[in-house]
Write a structure and sequence with these properties.
heterodimer; A: alpha+beta; 6-stranded mixed sheet; two-stranded antiparallel sheet; 13% strand; B: alpha+beta; Elongation Factor Tu (Ef-tu), domain 3
Chain lengths: 394, 507
Amino acid sequence: MPARRNHVDPRVDAALERVRGRASTLRPSVRRLAAFADVHACPTAAVAFAARVDTNRVLTGTTLEMPFGQSPFAIGRGVAFEALLRRHGHAELRRVLTEGLGVDFSQAGIENLREGYQPNTTGLKLRASVTRSRMAEIIASPAEPVVLDGAVLRADVGGLPAFFEADEMAIGVGGEIVVGENKSWPVVDGRPTDEDALGSALDQAATYVLLGRRTLDDAGVDPDRVSSNAVLVTPRNTGLTAVLHRQNVDGRVRRIERLLSAVPHVADIATSVPADVTFDVAADTSLPEQERVDAFAEVSDRLGRVYEPASCLSSCGFAWACRQCAFATGDPALSGGVVARALPGVVSLSRVAELSHGAPASAVEAPVAGPLARAGRLYDEAVPVPAPRRRRPA
Amino acid sequence: MSTAMEAMFAGRIHQDGHALRRTTLRHTNLTDPALGICLWRLGGERFRAAAVAWGPIGGPYKLAVAGEPRNRDLYFSALLPFAADLCKRIRRVAATQVARQRGRHTDYLPADALQIVVPNRTTVAALGLLGRYLAYLSDRGGVAPDPALVEAGKHLRFYARHARVPGQALLVPLDRLLAEHWATLLSPFEQANLAAVDAQIDPPRGVHAFDSGFAAEASARIGPEPTEDIDRITDELLARFNEARGGATEPATIGPLIAPIEAHYRRLVDPVWALMARVVDRERALPAAPSVPRRFEVDREAFGRRVDWVTGGGRYRTTDTPRQAAMTLRRLEEPLARYEAEKAIEDPAAMVPYLLDGEAVRGVVASLNDQYRVRFRVKAVRRAIIALDTDDPVILPLGKKLWWTATAHDHHWEVQDVTANGAGSRITLMLYAAPTPARLPGVGDRITFSVLHTSSDGYRLPPPQNPPWTHTSAAPPAPPEPIDAGDGDPPAAAVDGATLPDPGVYA
């Protein structure tokens, strides 16, 4: 387990405050971490994540704001499903855990940590403390299983404490702790109706497994008491009747562990990010759009940018802005990492076009110039009459 | 995918400002007119089509709007005209049959098949789920659901499953059609927005494809999954509708109340409908590849078999047995190989990636010897040897099997020797069959050899009736069952994300 640094230097705090400027902040959550997992290679995204910047809201009100909003019906369905699991003393949750885990949960103690605690950092700290205590009790092997609804796990992310809320944590299942995640998308004929959503849900569960193991390790308990088989609770078929699925998430746990260690430390950010780099102007809704967009482009130019369409567009609030920057500079990354990696030494897409028309190559371009020229020549032979060309406006 | 080809496309599109064709031919059958279907769901509700538009592509559409699609009575009542019309069209098309002679065997196929065109692959998945829901419905209060709904469900399920077959044209998602035929600056993720792809292909004069695509992406809504702004409006309209109907579901009460919701969805469908017609028109203008009729014949055969089975009251498993899964995989792999081969063999633009990746060679026949004798086992047989001079240097292992594109259905040639020849290479190839005029190119011809062929790889035995224990599940797959239990429950109330501390929890 990596060593953790909890103490935050006031100078670091000030530096993070400066990086954020007027940008909204966002508490790290398992979904935020999963989103960051997709873009962790990007320096701009990494700085924004470590500084707790809500990337989805920096460019609010501009044409480059990502449309990540959710349908009120989709949210309503999720709320209704969770309410169903908790109704009548968690009767539905007890049923589904009993049927799915093969352990009688009808008399299990269910502790709802979502109620009775303040909805702030103090409340989260208290909930994390209760979670830690209950998990440590596994040594005593309680006679009845225990379920923590809304367990909170603490982790250090980039040197700052963060709290992660698990949907449920069942303690005492064959001497193990099982973490669970509730999702409101249905499963039909044993198959998820949304495979991408299944992957995200398992990533979230894997994060809880990892953090649960770290918590046990800190308490001097064997971390492997947290089961590798996470639980997903989803509706079955068209109604909301819950059904439980178990899935091994060991591979995902290792990935999340690597990811957490890749988050830049806030102290490093404070020292390495130039003093005048800030999301302040980009997030200032009182300014004209172009000024904000230019300010963002400057920040990402200085920090560095790794644009990868497949992951950025589904996970990062900066994606459209970065895509715009990539287009403006003719960055080969505009077409994805596969193309960009195939063009070492070629600075722009305009140059790619020239090489494909047979332009002489420099020494550094030579390895890719041949295949590009050949591709262009073969294509021109195959499609002899090109569509009329239009000039791009200046 | 050849990365050099993709890079060349990206560079030229960025420079020229418009998309480029990946093919010179159309590789998908497009009937005239196909049946278009455009679907909008309620957010998060995978089985609830809030609006279904259908009709001939290029013509007017009909619109089915339930008002409250989470109410079973209202939902089925709205879907019924669509279901009945779909069943009628399918039965009508399947009724006319033609004889097909294969050896001494004669079978009968539908003369045509109903082609369905949808905006994107997400709609294919949505139709599949809708089909699964409707295909096996339980009685409610002793009242059986309308048979047209059940039959339409079975047809939709078949169409969605058949859409996995490479090169099929029974259910055509237009985003896939365009992605196969055009290169754009859009990644596969972005290509799900049909309007963005179309805008890159045909940008307004003076506007770069990127800008045009971005404008379309930001403004166009394609469905079936609604965006937040759409469902905010739907939520308001639905609340008013539910309040006004007061629990009533009779058409006489509902009819006058549903107009605002219908108008809302009509505003969403109109631009998508026009876009679908424009895309189909543009692609139809391209000449069809020679193999398109053959593939559509396979589609017609599957269509005819399915219609016969469904109209005869047949049922299909909803979960494959291991044996069925293995056979399905083979049924998908073989058409993929053949489709890729036919595309490249018939279309010079589609052959370019194979040439770049070293899986094809092109050159001029420098010499031909059709009297070459080679000893096979005990007797000497006549074979043909050619020398092919390529423009570019090639690296090929000796003994590599290649097919001349003109005889890709026939016997292969084998590489005998490769030597440097000026800027290119000289390849010596031997035909592995008796040389006949049809199998031989002429000296001086510019021809292409590739690893692609359209002949069968040989007869394959069917998998054993009883799979080995390694492929047997503990319990046999469940028989088809209704999945509609709970669809009569009261609908969940919509929740505004702005009122929650962390709405992302429900993403």
